[in-house]
Sequence to fold (464 residues):
Amino acid sequence: MTEPIRLTTPLTDEDVKRLRIGDRILLSGVIYSARDAAHKRLVALIKEGKPLPFDLQGQVIYYMGPSPAPPGRPIGAAGPTTSYRMDPYAPELIARGLKGMIGKGARSPEVKEAMKKYGAVYFAAIGGAGALMSQSILSAEVIAYPELGPEAIRRLEVKDLPIVVANDIYGGDLYEEGVKRYALL
Amino acid sequence: MREIHVERIVDAVRDLAIKANIELGEDVIAAFERALDQEESPTGKDILKRLIENARIAREQRIPICQDTGFAVVFVEIGQDVRVTGGSLREAIEEGVRRGYQEGYLRKSICHCITRKNTGDNTPPVIHFDIVPGDKLKIIFAPKGGGSENMSRVTMLTPAVGIEGVRDFVIQRVKESGPNPCPPTIVGVGIGGTIEQAAILAKKALLRPVGSENPDEELNALEKDWLERINRLGIGPQGLGGRITSLAVHINMMPCHIASLPVAVNIQCHAARHKEVEL
Fold:
């Protein structure tokens, strides 16, 4: 395996262009967490022409709803949730400047098309490794929809979050490639 | 009659909720170690190592293994010579869930089906009561995450398809689920009974220690054959390609109606959590 690439948010077009599927990334900087309910609201705001709770330009959204922070910690367990549930909403956000998404599991053809068209990447994190992922989160602050509890939008400051490029802007798909390589049927 | 006060039950359920979500079973960790020996994909190996590390961090730092601390599924075996005193058994279990999820800093993941409003305390739990001989009360706490539960299915096959038809349904389900249920998974299979019974059989199959032998010789052979076939799919850890898609297949079977062949597949993510206590 090659050495991991260190990336800092916000991501630029140049950052995104050099990434290829299978690249291991250590991500640092500010990212935002959002799941199903928050995505529904964000897309509703876009449709109504209203401002979003945070600027999407160059940003990365982490599909994640953490467990509550125990005393003295910034956050509880914080692994990714399954991404396909955000597929109906993701193209709208990508079209408005979102540069990266972190989750687990494959994306729809519509999302992959939007990633190619507007230049965005999809990163896979290890599902179920919530305790491990939490070690890379320095701070967490709810910035919108506190009433959604675990589904509220959080501003996260991360340091060396371990992720891998699963879909690049060239149409590469690590889920398809990986399974093809090891299937014996 | 042996008497057990509800307060003991509240405390027991509270403790089980926290322990189950923080301490991964040794059987699962041993299965990760065996998988690490067999896995050929470098990415797959890396993921398995991180899962072992994740379990260690959770246990040492007392934080959940996975942020999805699940739907609280509780199996209760009540000895017929036990009398519960001081209140309602169901309410005691609910209170234990409430306290466990609050005091253990576990995520509250239960909501109204239509409005999606969170109930706020991870109640209600799903409780399966069973009456058994004796004067003990056994409680098994098995939190179930949404990702792997979403990939599970129940179906009513035509008896003509035989065991090969059951096998194909199970393997197809794992294949279609791909990376979504957080592989390496444990595949719980329930065959027989009625539609709801098949699902309960599949869920109970997940409570067996991972990779233990099925006491039924015929089912034991099927489990080994199906696991081998599943691990030829190439899905691998996290669905990024590899040899180890599943750690085990566990089958429970009971007789069915002459017209039916019910089959349930309950997929369990690698965070295969359950803890039990006998009062």
